[in-house]
Amino acid sequence: MSLLSVRDLSVKFAMRDQTVTALRNISFDVARGERLGIVGESGAGKSITGFALMNLLSRPGYIAGGKILFEDRDITGLEDEAMRDIRGNHMAMIFQDPMVTLNPVLTIGQQMLETLYAHRKLSKAEATQIAILKLREVYIPSPEERLDQYPHELSGGMRQRIIIAMALLLDPKLIIADEPTTALDVTIQADIMELLLELCHSNKVGLILITHDLGVVSQMTERTLVMYAGRIIEAGPTREIINDPQHPYTQGLINALPQQTPPGHRLKQIPGNMPSLTAIPPGCPFAPRCSFAVDHCRTTLPELVSYGSVEVACHEVNRLHNAPAKEKSA
Fold it and tell me: Does the pLDDT of residue 200 top 90, yes or no?
């Protein structure tokens, strides 16, 4: 039994003059202790997926179809009180910016203890000990002193470690990390990712890592979903996707990495932009940006089908796979 099983999940936003689809029938599983990466450009649907899993979509967004099964229990339509029991106790989320997540007028201790009191019947001394223990787990120095500090008194890296400690307070089985290092410098990013990896190993926690950084995904995850315009367009073992991508969009993302370009040359980029939710083209959404697109691609939406060890949604995958390396990198 999978820890998390998502089936045909669709999310829509009811706008003033139309309803737009942000997620289109996505399906995937996360096993216990597994690390799954979700990658794609801004607007691909990565963060919406995380918010939908936690039932944190705010109006006008709503889940329009499909199921989210957590430990074989359908949590898609749970009432707020029942969902609050799932959040924290079983699933936790780490957001992009810790200064948005943390309350600036409450101390770190007040915020951590408030979380514990909401889910556990504990004395103040017991809750404080748990908070100190979790701060130690994420290598916060002098954790007793940090409890009395406010978020603005701490560095960005320290604040993100505290967010991770708060996510671990109730020993969840799954953590969803949405671009957890976006606001941090490169050296701190590496430390935070190494910490997350260590915690997943030591606590046997499942991880969904949402990011645009394929380099991070290659180091952190076992399986990867590549998303484009609200759909999964490639899925499989991370090593296979990084080393031998099948979808032209995935190939474009990898070719755009700085290390793929010799020094002194212009960086490669995918031409065009992600389509707006209000103007998704017919057929394959990537067709307007794809050098392999043919007429069929522009009229018929490709289904996600097995191709070797991965799943890929591309009509021309056979031709793309057999294309010369020079053509693939174009």
Answer: no
For residue 87, what are its two tokens?
A: 């959040």
Q: Which two tokens stand for residue 95?
A: 């957001």
Q: What is the pLDDT of residues 23-68, one digit of tens each?
A: 999 999 999 999 999 999 989 999 999 999 999 998 899 999 999 9
* pTM of the predicted model over 0.85: yes
